[in-house]
Amino acid sequence: MSKTAVIRCVLSLILIGYLAWALVWAGRMSASEVCAGIDVHVLHSPTSRDFVTPAEVKALLSEWKLDSTDIPLHTIDTQRIEESLEGIDNIEHANVERLADRRLRLTVTPMQPVARIFDQRGMSYYINRQGKRLTANARFRLDVPIVTGTFDSVRTPVSLLPLINRIARDSAWNAIVSHVAVEPGSRDVLLVPMIRGHVINLGDPDDIDDKLKRVMLMYHKVMPVKGWNYYDTISVKWRGQVVATRRQKTIPEPLIRFDQADDEIYEEDVNSMLTATGSDTASIAGSMKNR
Predict the structure, then answer these.
(1) Which one, of 48, 291, 49, lies nearest residue 178 by Cα?
(2) Do 146 and 182 form a contact (C-beta atoms < 8 A)?
(3) Which residues on adjacent β-strands are paired with residue 146?
(4) What's the CA gap between 134 and 116, in Å, rounded?
(5) Mind spelling out the 3-state secondary structure of the chain?
(6) d(CA 117, CA 48)
(7) What is the pLDDT of residues 156-179, one digit of tens each?
(8) Which among 107, 111, 110 has a CA at the least distance from the CA of 39?
(9) Measured between alpha carbons, how far is 74 from 68 in angstroms, rounded to an integer?
(10) CB-based contacts of 35: which residues, under 8 Å, 6+ apart?
(11) Are the CB atoms for 118 and 182 separated by under 8 Å?
(12) Which terminus of the chain has a lower count of CB atoms within 10 Å, N or C?
């Protein structure tokens, strides 16, 4: 073996020995390091203000004996801290990081409700996008969509979130709809408009775009002629149809006279309008708000 090869072997052994010593030393140092404290940051948003404060988070950690101050860093179970906090109603997400200065950074995302539910048992609560509940009380009063009615394992509040999100994204429909209701028995989903006098029966919360388009055609072409109080229900639960139920009680004579066809014939006329294109949704929403 050449002299150069021997030198390389010796240097390699020295380097391996140094690395082994460094790892042992680092492990001992890490085991002796204690937590210097916890920094709590709460990420607020317009829909989560005051749901939780840093002081409340610290109080919870202390109550659960998870405050982790003056104990070895390597014994702190960060996953347990995160899971414990996420089990609280008004906390949506928690994340724990170890910092270089031996402190823990705890970042908490408060509950961000997307709807308020009033169910058949008289209970009221908020839900977020994942369906997590937050009991409603005087401290939490938010301007979010309202959902009322009878719920079961099939028609749950969470199953209505795609519909609620669709309405929220559309400025016209957001201005039109007062709240969403689930009808007892049939479990049909109803939209209750801001203007009183009729409801919109969607049936199942599926094919929302097509159903809302049919309703808007009805609003654009029929209601201005018949009157906004002429029908008590506009149903689009059946594919490709609009079925309007005339109000049973007596209504004032309209200012504009028109041919009084029977309901069945008129429903056919309504359905034929579905082939028309173009409707000014913004103007319809504006006219309804101004009534």
Answers:
(1) 291
(2) no
(3) 116
(4) 9
(5) CCHHHHHHHHHHHHHHHHHHHHHHHHHHHHHHCECCEEEEEECCCCCCCCCCCHHHHHHHHHHCCCCCCCCEHHHCCHHHHHHHHHCCCCEEEEEEEECCCCEEEEEEEECCCCEEEECCCCCEEEECCCCCEEECCCCCCCCCCEEEECCCCCCCCHHHHHHHHHHHHCHHHHHHEEEEEECCCCCCEEEEECCCCCEEEEECCCCHHHHHHHHHHHHHHCHHHHCCCCEEEEECCCCCCCEEEECCCCCCCCCCCCCCCCHHHHHHHHHHHHHCCCCCHHHHHHHHHCC
(6) 17
(7) 888 999 999 899 888 899 888 989
(8) 107
(9) 11
(10) 68, 69, 70, 71, 72, 73, 76, 102, 103, 104
(11) no
(12) N
Neighbouring-strand partners of residue 180: 147, 191
For 47-84, how does the pLDDT look when each residue is reduced to its tens digit (9 = 90+)? 666 678 888 898 988 888 877 777 777 788 888 899 99
Instruction: Name the one residue in this structure whose structure tokens are 């009157």.
Output: 227
- Residue 193: Cβ-neighbour burial (10 angstroms; 0-12, 13-18, 19+): buried
Cα separation, 45 vs 164, in Å, equals 20
Burial class from Cβ neighbours inside 10 Å (0-12, 13-18, 19+) for residue 237 reads middle
> Which range has the worst mean pLDDT, 94-98, 148-152, 155-159, 278-282?
278-282
Rounded CA separation 61/65 (Å): 6
Give the closest residue to 134 by CA, choosing from 118, 156, 111: 111
134, 50 contact by CB (below 8 A) = no
